[in-house]
Amino acid sequence: MPVGNGNKVRFHYSLSLCDGSIWETSVDEDPMExxxxxxxxxxxxxxxxxxxxxxxxxxxxxxxxMIYGSIGEGMAxxxxxxxxxxxxxxxxxxxLFLASAEGQSIPMxxxxxxxxxxxxDRTHPLAGKELVLQIHLLEIL
Length: 141
What we know:
Blueprint: E1 8-17, E2 22-25, E3 32-35, H1 45-49, E4 57-62, E5 76-80, E6 95-99, E7 105-113, E8 117-121, E9 131-140
Antiparallel strand pairs: 1-2, 1-3, 1-9, 4-9, 5-8, 6-7, 7-8
């Protein structure tokens, strides 16, 4: 029976760059579980799962703007140095993590630092990059 919208599935995945380097994988961890059609992961995952059969392996390419968006303006955030914890001296190129209002950790890179302010770039490292998604469907639950 092929996967359809609304099916709960268990699968392993690997997300890699076009050069073959793996960015993220579940292969050495517990498999992912989701209900198809509820957009739990990145765009393109539900579409890739639909029609798959148990045991099938599928590889699909995700467009550069599908997951992490494109590289664009408006991703800079300027903060006064007093907004950082005492003793913190952000360095150019340093990666920092800020908490969103929802409690998510957001990676940011220091692109400018002075005695009075720090500029952070919120662009995800994979923004603007085409990615390869490989799915191994283990089970339709």
